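Hi Y.,

Following your request, here is the sequence exactly as I used it, all 388 residues.
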Amino acid sequence: MRVLVASTAGAGHFGPLVPVARACVRAGHEVAVAAPESFAAEVTGAGFVHRPFADVPRDVLGAVMGRLPTLSMEEANRVVVAEVFGRLDAQAALAGVTATVEEWRPDLVLREPTEFGSLAAALAAEIPQVVVAVGVASLMEQVGAMVAEPLAELDTLAGLALGTCSAAIRTAPTLTSVPPVLDEVRPSDAEHRGPVHRYRVPVAPSEGRLPGAWGDPAQPLVYVSFGSVAAALPHFAPVYPAVLDALADQPVRVLLTTGRGVAVDELTVPPNACVEQWWPQDDVMAQAAAVVGHGGFGTTMAALVAGVPQVVLPLFAMDQFVNADHVAAVGAGVTVPGGVAGVDELPAALARVLQDDRYRLAARSVADQMAGLPPVTAVVPVLEELVG
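Below is the corresponding structure, written out as C-alpha cells. Let me know if you'd prefer a different format.
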C-alpha cells in the first residue's frame, strides 16, 4: 500500500511518526511524507521522500506569533492551537497535500494530530486517515474543542459538509505509544473516540556514553533538556543560564542540552555541569538519576521508557502542562509551575525526586507497562486492514 505521512514543521510532531513510517517501509509498503517546504531537510534526513506543501507566509505567521507575549498563557495556547494549527497551517497545506493525494494516490493518510490539511484532503478523497498521537488522549480532546471554528472553514475550502473534519478528529483510529496508565489519569469518553492501538518503539541497548568527564562522578547524573524550540524563543531562552545557576551548588552532576538556538560558549558553566547542543538521549537515560524537562512529548516519553523520574517545568505549550500533570498524577515525577520564574524552586523539587524512592519506583512501574506493549511493527497489520 501507499502511505502518505503528514506533519507540520515541528520535530516534536514529526518524531513520533517516524517509527511507524519506518515500520511500514520495512513491511514492504511505499511511504512519502507531506510536510511544509521549510521542513525538507528533516524529512529527507530521516530517509523519506518529501512531498512539500506551502508554508504559512512569514509575515502572516509573524503577526500572530508576535501577539503571544502580550497574552495570558491560556489565551496564547488557544491562539497557537486555533489560529496557527487549525487555520493558518491547515489552509496553507490544503492545496499542496490535496494535489499530492490526487497525483500520488495514497491508500492511507497517517498524520500527526495537528496537521489538519491532510485530514481534509483524505476525507475529500474518501481514503482512510489515522492519527499518530504526540501526547495523552485528553490533550486532543482539548485541541478538538479549540479548532471547531477553523475546521468548519476548512470543510468549506475542501468541499466537505460542515462538521466533517471535527467529527473525523473525534472518531479517527489512533496509534499511540502512551501507556494506558497515563491516559487513565483523565479518562476519555469512549463513545466519542475511535479505536486506539498502542505500541512501543524498541530501544536499542545503550553503552551510556557521556561527553567526557566533569564534576564528581559519585554524584547522581541529572539530564536537563527543554527540547528543540525553547532556545529559539527570546522569552524562554533565559531558562538555560537560570537552571545552571540554580543547580550550581547542588550535589548533582548536570548534563544540559540546548539545541541549536543557544551559543553554548556564551553560557557560564559551573564545575558540576556539562553543556552540549545535542547528545543521544538513550545514552543519557541509561545513566540518569533524574530528568529535568519542560513536558515535551519526546523527552517526557524517553524518561518514562527508561524508568527515570522527572521534574517537569512547563514553559509555553499546552501539551507541556498536560504532560506534566499526568507525570505527577502517576507519581513518576513532580511539576514546578511558573515557567522561567519557577527555576528557583527547581533545587528543592529535584531533591525530592532524588531522595524519595517512591518517584523512582513509580517511574519504573510505568516503564514496565510500556515494555509490555506490542512492538511498533504490530500496528502495520492494523493499517493494512483499514486499507482492505
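The chain has two domains: 2-200+373-387, 221-371.

Thanks again,
Q.
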